[in-house]
Here is the input.
Amino acid sequence: MVEFLQLSFGGGMGLRIDDCMARMMTIPGARRVTLVDGASGLAVAAAGREDLLDQHEDAAGATDVVRAVLTTPALSATAAGDDVEEIIVCGTHGYHLLALTDANLDGHLFVHLLLDRESGNLALARIRMRALVGEMTGG
Here is the structure.
């Protein structure tokens, strides 16, 4: 069960995954959040409206986007692509904020937050996501 999983990277004990997902859902305009293992493309955890998208389809599609960005030299300052911290995709009804973590489990974990365009604030969501991802990974 998700409530017993914890992330503890970077030395300290991070937030429990369910606590982290719940806190991410308090970001104004948050509609859905998924924690994804970028190595496998699988969802680790998810919260929010289940009727918007399936967590497994979400994880697979978001992983394709992250991999494309990280492997495209034109989108990265270094050949390894390790300078990318977040990716934003703007849609007509919302934003997709993909926040990469420093945590490693045979690849990067990242968070996909679906944010409503009318009730959300992209700048605030970016700040809150970065803080929560830092807490989650103990960084």
